[in-house]
What we know:
It contains no helices and eleven strands. The protein is mainly β. The chain is globular.
Amino acid sequence: QVQLVESGGGLVQAGGSLRLSCAASGRTFITYNMAWFRQAPGKAREFVARIRWSGGRIDYADSVKGRYTISRDNAKNTMYLQMNSLEPEDTAVYYCAAASRITSVTMRALVDYDFWGQGTQVTVSS
């Protein structure tokens, strides 16, 4: 089992930046592939970015590519999402997720992930 706790959300003006953190506890964090998803009001939860356990194989949704950066520090059992040039359309609850194994080529589906955090709200004002 892995417990995930997100932090770092808040209210920011368009064009601003935030850094989200996902602290993991429980089983060995280093063996898990990690990802960020988000869910805007009235919309389905969607993939944002993912990172392999080694820090390699990083992947982003087209909507955030060039603006967001995912990273992880296995020594601290923590994953990060640096979000720059934020837009009102980025407003959502952001969730971190952990996958114990590779279940698909893209690893972009909700069902690919075994463990989820409770989410942190990000609100971008125009």
